[in-house]
Design brief:
5 helices, mainly alpha, 0% strand, 93 residues, globular, 63% helix
């Protein structure tokens, strides 16, 4: 799965879990743009990811973790987060 498709699946799953419509993102962008993201046709900028996450009332990192999870799966996303935590521990800046 490409990251565009993963992001779209994550966005759609989160949007539906929060009972939001594509129109509820009108402060972020048009319904057409949200639809394009959900179908994996476009890549959002980091600014858009932040605005989308704000609308969903979640951290942008949660959205990104879910985007990289297999089939927008919470368990897979949690495993990704654990991997990130371990990688951060190992970094010396």
């Amino acid at each position: 799965m490409t990251v565009k498709i993963g992001f779209g699946a994550a966005l759609r799953a989160l949007r539906l879990s929060k009972n939001l419509t594509q129109e509820d993102f009108s402060l972020v962008s048009s319904r057409t743009y949200i639809s394009s993201l959900e179908r994996g046709l476009k890549n959002p900028t980091l600014d858009k990811v932040e605005l989308i996450a704000e609308t969903l009332q979640i951290s942008p990192l949660t959205l990104i973790a879910l985007a990289y999870a297999e089939n927008a799966d919470i368990i897979s996303a949690t495993e990704n987060i654990e991997k990130i935590k371990q990688e951060l521990k190992e970094l010396t800046l």
